[in-house]
User: Fold this.
Amino acid sequence: MSTRRKLVEGENRIYDKNRVLREIINVKDGALNGAHIYYDKDGKTVLAEENFKDGVRNGSFYVKGPIKKFDDIEFSEWGENNKDVKSRYIREICGNYKDGKLDGECSYEVRYETKFGHTYIEKIRATYQAGNLDGAYYQKTGWLDRYYDAIARESYHIKRGMYADGEFSGDVLRYTYDRPELEKQYKDGTVVYEHSESGGSWYEIQANGWCRDDRSGEAYMQKNGLKDGPYKQYYGNSGRIAEEGSYKEGKKDGVFTYYDKEGRITEKTSYSADKKNGASILYNSDGTEASRKLYRDGKDITEYYADLKEMARSNVSPVKGEINPKLSKEKKARKVLKQKLSRILDTARGR
Assistant:
């Protein structure tokens, strides 16, 4: 352990209690200026080197880990949120500072030790501008092959592309024995394509195109990241349809038909802009109609509609509730229809 004394102008050499050199610090005008070097216990092996100008990091730096924290580097979401991670450390990092902020290319390796005794590695080469990711980005991740002290070839991921204004555009590829497969694609920070097959579950999601997801049993078209076009949902990956219909700009639109596991229709409901609009019919197991309801903008207007039909059949005026024999049959029908539509719209608007 080094014993830090008061720093003086010029080069300061810091030794431990065994008179082994542990640090070299350069001071000018009372502030750190120039190289600051850290040595291992042998007094020769450099563990870290950073450069300063007027007390602020400027120029190249290098750190040989393990170090638990480096203020300007964030640990990945995988390492931050994984409950199985027991410890994490940066094994090695090098890059460049400008006016106290990361600037230019920075390379580092992070290792995560799990409570099961496994090690997960992230190797990153990123470009920074004024402390923010901006430019080329490359990341390789996977489990440690302890024999070679490297990422195992059996399965690993590579994320490569560009950052601009904090948003990533590029690909995530999964490699199996060095054979690549596109797993995810980003554009301006948004996932425009996603594909994976593991544990018997397969999915492929596109921002524009046909999508299938065995995890949810869905198959559908997307446009600009929203469901738009034909839609089907299956019972798992059995191939048996649970429901089918269509979407428009991410909302249900048109008739949706629902099936039981034997393929029998259980329900047909009409939608508009994700709200029930029109008839909703339930069916018995033998295919006969069990019940029927009528909706307008998501509101149940079945009873009111039934009352109107009954009034029309009995030749009763919906307004006065009286027989009006003076009206011709055609005029009665038009009047009832007009009043019915007016009342339905008023009900739907909550009047």
Remarks:
- The longest strand covers residues 150-164.
- The longest helix spans residues 329-348.
